[in-house]
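Fold it.
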Amino acid sequence: MASATGGRHRRAERIAAGVEVRRGIVPEELIDAALRLLHLDLITRGASAEELGRWLWSVHWFPHLRMDPKITALAQALPAEWRTGEICDPQILLQFPHAGPEPEITFHIDREPDWAGARRFQRIVGIALSRWHQENGGLLIERSGGAPLAVELDAGDAVMMEPEVLHSAGINRSGSIRYAVYFRWLGS
């Protein structure tokens, strides 16, 4: 991967209508600090099976860490034009390998928090803390009349979606955990 200072991130890739990718935009040291925070939390604080189950089904991992400076620092690495509006609470997402019958992929549009009132999301940004690809359940974008688009990212890459883009996680058929942090910004 090229370093963030090597210019690789300056180029935006429009990969679908309303979806843009920036490569190598989040420095490796920020990714490492966020992953270290999550892993050390499991070692020092622990998590019961009940708590892990709640996180799994709510798709919000480590909710007690979402406002930690090591998580929020990730957003500061994003382009200024991606950070306009009011930022919502970050979403830490881990996708473990799937077991059992494979579910049907269902696409969705993210819902604004109740406290937003009539305000709507301006954008949704996902930061890859690990490699995202089709086999580990990476982000899928629904395309009309065709197969879903798998958004392939390396750690440190980011994807920006307009709020009306239908999306879903895929199915993790790999042996590794896929890590992500999502940020959402509200308009006025």
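The longest helix spans residues 28-44.
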